[in-house]
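Memo subject: From amino acid sequence to discrete backbone structure tokens
Keywords: amino acid chain, backbone geometry, structure tokens, three-dimensional fold.
Body of memo: The sequence and its backbone structure tokens, given next.
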Amino acid sequence: MIKKLHQMGIRSSHMYMASVASIGLSFASWVMSKQAEQAGIDRADRWGIFIGEWAPTFMAMGIALRMEETHRDLEEGEMGMFDESQTRRATTPAGI
């Protein structure tokens, strides 16, 4: 699933932002439910907790996507970086 999300263009930063937004939305829904509904603070607490539970999920997905991005970067870097002829030309001073 993480590879598919990465292929779709979703990055770890998107998930981190969703996690922070979830925390803000949790607080906002708690305040709005507390003020707008006559059901009392119990329902407001349930709304806040329900939305607040999304934050750890988004954070975990962000971490998994970061690992996928790091893995992809290492795979791409190993192909050209460790070619002996390229590294010799890049590190040998001119004229030697």
Observations:
- Residues 54-81 form the longest helix (28 residues).
- Residues 16-78 form one domain.
- The mean pLDDT is 79.
- The helical segments are 2-7, 12-36, 41-52, 54-81, 84-91.
